[in-house]
Amino acid sequence: MDAPLGIPAPSFDGSTAQEIAVRCDVPAVHLFEEVGSTMDVAHDLAAAGAPAGTVVLAERQAQGRGRGGHGWTTAPASTIALSLVERPLDAEAIGVLSLRLGLRVAQALSRHAPDLMVKWPNDLMRQSAKLGGILVEARWHGGRPDWVVIGIGLNVSASPWPGGAALDFHGSRVEILAELLPALRAASTATGGLSEGERAEWRRRDWAAGRSVVMPARGVVRGVEADGSLVVDGPAGPIRCTSGSLVLAEE
Question: How many Cβ atoms from other residues are within 10 Å of residue 104's Cβ?
Answer without folding.
Answer: 21
